């Protein structure tokens, strides 16, 4: 729940899972985030199945993006996202390795808002290199009529879309029961 008098920001996150019931981990992460004080899930992209990047000896991922409305600053939002990862059994043993859930803060308000700390760089430093981030993000930005949509589409045009990414399921938030359409 968000307090009405608080200054609201739009945050854009990427979600990924490649262990166990991947779709359930994505939906559980969205529900847990939505239940947090100061965070509201506004909309989501479809779910995409993607080949692993970096560490290749692992199963395919399910990825999606979500738009959040929040009154939390970027650091507090990141801590909230890390808490959700821990609740869902995330461990960090291998860089870019298998995970129950991965939550990445991609943008905060827009691509021109730059933020850097010891734990966080915004916009996400590798977002423009990864179709599995940009394709779902583009869906969310389009739904929101976001001004950065055109810039994201231009970056998508220059990426190798043969990296193993395909739409897995159409998903529309909010669906409290977690049902999806094919």
From TrEMBL:
<keyword id="KW-0547">Nucleotide-binding</keyword>
<dbReference type="GO" id="GO:0003848">
    <property type="term" value="F:2-amino-4-hydroxy-6-hydroxymethyldihydropteridine diphosphokinase activity"/>
</dbReference>
<comment type="pathway">
    <text>Cofactor biosynthesis; tetrahydrofolate biosynthesis; 2-amino-4-hydroxy-6-hydroxymethyl-7,8-dihydropteridine diphosphate from 7,8-dihydroneopterin triphosphate: step 4/4.</text>
</comment>
<keyword id="KW-0289">Folate biosynthesis</keyword>
<dbReference type="Pfam" id="PF01288">
    <property type="entry name" value="HPPK"/>
</dbReference>
<dbReference type="InterPro" id="IPR035907">
    <property type="entry name" value="Hppk_sf"/>
</dbReference>
<keyword id="KW-0067">ATP-binding</keyword>
<feature type="domain" description="7,8-dihydro-6-hydroxymethylpterin-pyrophosphokinase">
    <location>
        <begin position="95"/>
        <end position="106"/>
    </location>
</feature>
<keyword id="KW-0418">Kinase</keyword>
<dbReference type="InterPro" id="IPR000550">
    <property type="entry name" value="Hppk"/>
</dbReference>
<protein>
    <recommendedName>
        <fullName>2-amino-4-hydroxy-6-hydroxymethyldihydropteridine diphosphokinase</fullName>
        <ecNumber>2.7.6.3</ecNumber>
    </recommendedName>
</protein>
<keyword id="KW-0808">Transferase</keyword>
């Amino acid at each position: 729940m968000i307090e009405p008098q608080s200054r609201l920001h739009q945050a854009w996150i990427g979600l990924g899972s490649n262990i166990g019931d991947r779709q359930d981990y994505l939906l559980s992460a969205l529900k847990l985030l939505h239940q947090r004080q100061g965070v509201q899930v506004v909309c989501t992209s479809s779910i995409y199945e993607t080949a692993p990047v970096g560490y290749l000896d692992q199963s395919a991922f399910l990825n999606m993006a979500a738009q959040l409305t929040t009154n939390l600053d970027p650091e507090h939002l990141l801590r909230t996202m890390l808490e959700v990862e821990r609740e869902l059994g995330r461990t960090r043993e291998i860089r870019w390795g298998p995970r129950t859930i991965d939550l990445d803060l991609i943008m905060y308000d827009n691509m021109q808002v730059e933020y850097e700390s010891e734990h966080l760089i915004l916009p996400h430093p590798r977002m423009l290199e990864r179709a599995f981030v940009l394709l779902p993000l583009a869906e969310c930005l389009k739904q929101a009529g976001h001004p950065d949509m055109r810039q994201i589409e231009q970056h998508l045009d220059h990426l190798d879309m043969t990296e193993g990414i395909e739409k897995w399921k159409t998903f529309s938030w909010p669906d409290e029961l977690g049902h999806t359409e094919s």
